[in-house]
TrEMBL record, chain A:
Protein EC: 7.-.-.-
The family this protein is said to belong to: Belongs to the NqrB/RnfD family.
Cofactor needs: FMN
UniProt-listed HAMAP family: RsxD_RnfD
Source organism per UniProt: Victivallis vadensis
Domain of life where this protein originates: Bacteria
InterPro entries named in the record: NqrB/RnfD (IPR004338), RnfD_bac (IPR011303)
Modified residues (FMN phosphoryl threonine): 187
Name of protein: Ion-translocating oxidoreductase complex subunit D
GO CC annotation terms, alphabetical: plasma membrane
UniProtKB/TrEMBL annotation, chain B:
Keyword tags: 4Fe-4S, Cell membrane, Electron transport, Iron, Iron-sulfur, Membrane, Metal-binding, Repeat, Translocase, Transport
Name this polypeptide is given: Ion-translocating oxidoreductase complex subunit C
Assembly description: The complex is composed of six subunits: RnfA, RnfB, RnfC, RnfD, RnfE and RnfG.
Principal EC category: translocase
Organism classification: Bacteria, Pseudomonadati, Lentisphaerota, Lentisphaeria, Victivallales
Protein source organism: Victivallis vadensis
Automatic annotation (TrEMBL), chain C:
EC number: 7.-.-.-
Identification of the protein by name: Ion-translocating oxidoreductase complex subunit B
UniProt KW Cell membrane keyword: yes
Source organism: Victivallis vadensis
Function: Part of a membrane-bound complex that couples electron transfer with translocation of ions across the membrane.
Amino acid sequence: MSENEKNSEVMLPTGSELVLSSSPHLSSPDSVRRIMYKVLLALVPAAIAGVWFFGFYALVVMVVTMLFCVGAEALWCKLAGKPVMGTIADGSAAVTGLLLAMNLPPGVPLWVCLIGAFLAIWLGKQIFGGIGNNPFNPALVARVGLLIALPAIMTTWPVPRSFDSADPAAKITHATDTPVDSITGATPLGEVGTTKKILDKSEAAYANFQAVDNDAMLWKYFLGEKGGCIGETSVLALLIGGILLIALKLINWRVPVCYIGTVAIITGLVHFFYPGVSPSPLFHILTGGLMIGAFFMATDMVTSPITSTGCVVFAVGCGVITSVIRLWGNYPEGVSFSILFMNALVPLIDRWCSQRPFGYVRKRG
Amino acid sequence: MSKKDILTFDGGIHPVSDGKALSCNAPITAAPLLDKYRVLLSENVGKLPKPVVKAGDLVKKYQLIAEADGFVSANLHSPTSGKVTGIVDVPGPMGTLIPAIEIEADGQDEPCEPMPAIDWHKADVKELLKRTADAGLVGMGGAAFPTHVKLSPPPDKTIDTLILNGAECEPYLTADHRLMLEQPERVLEGAAISAKILNVKNVYIGVEANKIDAIEALGRRAAEFGIKVATLKVQYPQGSEKQLIMAITGRKVPTGGLPMDAGCVVQNVGTAAAMTDAVCRGIPLVERVTTITGEVVKNPGNWLLKIGTPVIKAIEFAGGVTAEPGKLILGGPMMGFAQKSFEVPVAKNTSGILLLPVELSMNYGSTGCIRCGRCVEGCPMNLIPCLLGNAVEAERFDLAAQNHVMDCLECGSCAYVCPAHRPLVQHMRRAKAEIRKRKK
Amino acid sequence: MNTVVLIAVVLMAVLGLALGVVIGWFAKLFRVETDSRVELVTELLPGANCGGCGKAGCSDFAKSVVAGENPPSKCPVSSSEQISAIAMALGIDAGESFQQRAVVCCGGDMEQTKRLLNYNGVLDCVSASLVAGGPKGCSYGCLGMGTCAHHCPFGAIEMINNLAVVHRELCVGCGNCVAACPRGVIKLVPADADVHIYCNSPAKGAAKKQVCNVPCIGCRKCAKFAPDKFTVNGFLAAVNYQAEAFPTAEDVSAVGCPTGALLTVEEHLKIEQNEPEWSAGKK
């Protein structure tokens, strides 16, 4: 052994740096912070779409809401004596902020964002003990809180920029790049909500939603030209982000698939039997907050079930409640409420869907 | 090879860095003789063997130095010739001091009269079992369970399958890989002998697909011993007994049960090779192939080490280190045990000596659970590790027991994938310790 | 308008009456027979629910006292006056009281005992002891992560410089710390014993000295000085708690333990109180 002959050159360990820890001694390079940053990345396409359709002010809302949320978290940590930098650095407050901003109308005043940030971080998250302990999705807590407290502001929808440049409304909105209170449109779902329902299968029933539910309009909805919250506009952008999330294994694909599937089936059945009551399922999928809800809100790790079976139950529940609210409820939109409602059931779902260990044998007697 | 032929189980993980490239091309090298060996008495699960030598005795290589005490216990033999200097307390692999027989080598390495070789084709089962016990064979993969006990299942269990564990799913370790590649006939013959003892016809050897050369080497000779080579998916913990049985036979070992409850016996390939030596050459188990590896080891490789070799000497064989290691691990990085001392001797179940660099050693800056469910996906036993961890943190051991913490393999998949880096395995161990304490 | 009010009032009255009847009926149906004496004894007990008596809590113990299974003196927390009050209330014998105190048989704090390694894991003694026996050089001494202090219902254990010390005036001898300690370094001793051997390691003297400045090295100096008060088993001396008289502070100075493992309780408390280095992250 040539190495052993040169014994004096062999460097032997002294043990001065030894660390004692439990196995496993390797860990995956992923961390909570990385997960949060990846979610932010997946939200970028939808954010860009929001800015494109609603102008620079949408970007201001998103950035400011994120800053408010991070600030609210820092303030809480300061008051509660928790490490401030460590908590902010995990990026969860920024994700909550961006999600919240995407669930606000594009023309929302900034003070509403501030209230929303405190609702989300303090009421939605920190009073339960911070990240990982909150039963409800913080961004949705804030959105629903604002929706109930400030219904007028929260349902004022500026008209988005149109692909059709002859549209005068779009021009005006974009000429100023500030919220235009005077020119407001309605969301497609809002229009459906105010349309008088026809309970038979007459010609009129089929034509009831013709104005909002036709091929040309559906294409617009898909690309993003529709009234609504900043993040809800472009189904295409949300799909890109959602597929990114699934590809990065950040969300369980069962949640969006089952959620959207359930909505499609229920609205499809109603549409088939009562075409005057509900537009086509495709309309329901492409409008409102279903896409952002199914891909970004319902899939929130903390507030969704742990097991895959549980995720299916959870998503189907969300789909049922969303459909019920949309078809028969007072609100035109039910995504936020349905997700919050199912969030409350997560501990129960986890209990029902707890899995049996490998090789489990039921004890007799 | 089509994808269908590659067998696997549900759950499990795919570690990013498997570190096997460091040592998988290094042929097995016999270690030079040392001047002192310390053979640990507690090599095996079960009772400590009783020393049959005392200070001042002269011993030859292969001579019996400690005798099995009871059925679940195994003989110990001298790794070299020399003088017994006494029974000393040395740090054991679990961190406690345990007695060891210290032998000062005379440099001759002179063997004693070997046990007579047995023609296993003709020999009867009792004779073979007795030889297994005499040669001090133990499971060389993990727990060092005495092989003769494993090969004599109670009469009410029907065993129809023998599985040789060549999965070596632990990252970094390559000892079994080199053994199967370089000495396939030793492994296969040992498997055939074990199959004869158990009187089973179905004999499989399961190897992970990343060891294609070993699969080919075994495949060339397997048919003549009536053994089937099963290619397994590269997935941790493929080498865990229960998962291996599931992958190869599709059977599930019932919870709390042993492989024999699924009609199987699982044996490590190293043990099979030692079986061949014991039966065909009359040589007891005194040396084993061990991987000495890690990013800071100068020449990572696979060495044939005598039992009782202090780890520090083994590292010297491998050229020492290039930097001060942050962790010394006996076994693989997923299930191996961190050590406090470099004086720990190599035992019959030391499959690897792993030195991790300092920057890989501090891995827990644990934060709260975010319920991402990755541990649930990764758990090969279908448990919900994050909830078990929460239960332990709240000291609710009753809740942990209800949620089957006792079925945990401690394979480390959950803690590996946890993005919050929670020390889940340590929590599981604590829960098990507390539950066992309460049962007493 | 009057009719509306009337209807409401009548409806509420009827509803209230009906519900009241139902509640009353249920209360009768599911009445739990309680022994007033159990309640009395429970009130006289300290209510710490420490479990030192071996029962699940104070009211469980009260039941067993009333049933005659245990004498009142089995409660380690109550003073003799409280015990006699219980005995008087029940008209039974108080039983012989045997007061015990916990003592941590280790003097190895941060400075005195070598800690071999950086420990990276759960800061809990049980968890740490499962990782290669814990990061302390001595595998018998106090690990110093405070699991016993955490389990003490009376706050009698303080972690000083990563060594558990018992404040005798707070300790009642319930034994929760003894059960919590994975190393068995805490022992229950008679309450009036003042001097103890603060070492728990049966290892050889030389081996102990390698890792600790204050071990008992089994020199037998104490046993030679007072064979009736001290016994030496292998390399570890012990105070003979069965003896007539326990060693005193004078005995300690007279023996002159060469390593300082023989201490009075007060001396053990006064082991240098430096700011612990690594207990900052303690849970």
